[in-house]
Design goal:
About 35% of the residues lie in helices and about 15% in strands. It has about 270 residues and is of the alpha/beta class. The chain has a single domain (about 55-195, about 220-270), classed as Rossmann fold (3-Layer(aba) Sandwich). A 7-stranded mixed beta sheet has the order 3-2-1-4-5-7-6. Strand 4 (about 155-160), helix 8 and strand 5 (about 185-190) form a beta-alpha-beta unit. Helix 1 crosses helix 2, helix 2 (about 35-45) packs antiparallel against helix 9 and helix 3 (about 50-70) packs parallel to helix 4. The longest helix has 21 residues, at about 50-70. The radius of gyration is 18 Å and the shape is globular. The structure holds S-adenosylmethionine (SAM).
């Protein structure tokens, strides 16, 4: 089996990973044949999957520009993935050159590549940690060194929470993060849902099953269940909406039908 030189030691390249499958959908090159095979299998059920991922990245970039324009200079991106075109630090610094960005992911390939991309950057760093243990993230010396938790932060939970099952209590983890942030902080979130997918749910379920097979179940939540992640925060206009409808820069009607799958929104701590 191929083992590219960039693959970190110790990772099992025979098991597909969520971050490398996502990299493949976005046209990246940090994925293995097992990842591509799983991605293609999911696409047999939902051919528009890459369109959903592109709409998600586009939402993330608009939300980061919004946060930077609102005066936020600190970003905590949990589930940041493999760095690809238009990363948070690049987008934020185009608006706010001083922006500091802490990336967090539990996938070793995502962390290894972030380390390479961020080498020598004193205002951006990456931490290998798990969203399900928010205290370890908040109390880590790396996060404490980079992010002033007494000032507003933009917390990004973009396309990650649908990988956290209810038995792992994602609501408690997000509440702990929300509570720790200073007033004026923003929560930027997107999440998969059966709502909006231009296919009967039985067919979309085939793609969801692929993630179950690779032991990274995709938890599709309703709009109502996704809205609960923002508890106590005020929703920024236009609220929790399909991704292309969140402060669009081009006509949402021109977007592919698949990109309206799932929801995205930004909340603000009063
Ligand atoms: C679909 S990617 C999203 C990447 C990026 N946020 C974006 O939207 O472009 C999901 C990422 O979340 C990471 N992830 C999933 N569960 C996680 C957890 N419990 N803790 C930390 N990272 C996690 C995966 O490794 C993957 O890199």
């Amino acid at each position: 089996m191929e083992r590219p030189a960039w693959a970190p030691r110790g990772i099992d390249i025979s098991v597909p990973s969520v971050s490398r499958i996502y990299d493949f959908y976005l046209g990246g090159s940090h994925n293995f044949e097992v990842d591509r095979e799983a991605a293609r299998r999911a696409m047999e059920f939902m051919p528009g999957l890459p369109k959903i991922m592109q709409a998600n990245r586009a939402f993330m970039r608009r939300a980061v520009r919004f946060a930077a324009a609102e005066g936020i200079t600190q970003f905590l991106d949990i589930g940041s993935g493999i760095p690809t075109f238009g990363s948070v630090h690049e987008v934020a610094r185009a608006v706010s050159p001083e922006a500091r960005v802490m990336y967090v992911d539990h996938d070793p390939v995502a962390v290894a590549h972030s380390e390479v991309v961020l080498a020598g950057d004193e205002r951006a760093d990456v931490l290998a940690a798990d969203l399900r243990k928010p205290r370890e993230i908040l109390d880590s010396p790396q996060v404490r060194g980079l992010i002033d938790q007494n000032r507003p932060v933009a917390l990004l939970l973009v396309a990650i929470l649908h990988f956290v099952e209810d038995m792992d209590d994602p609501y408690a983890a997000v509440a702990e993060l929300r509570d720790s942030l200073a007033p004026g902080s923003l929560l930027v979130l997107s999440h998969a849902s059966y709502e909006g997918i231009p296919l009967p749910p039985e067919r979309a379920e085939g793609a969801v099953d692929v993630y179950k097979d690779i032991r990274n179940p995709l938890v599709m939540r309703s709009r109502e269940a996704i809205a609960r992640f923002f508890e106590g925060y005020d929703m920024v206009e236009p609220g929790l909406v399909p991704m292309p409808r969140w402060r669009p820069e081009t006509a949402p009607e021109d977007e592919d039908a698949y990109s309206f799958s799932g929801f995205a929104g930004v909340g603000r701590k009063a």
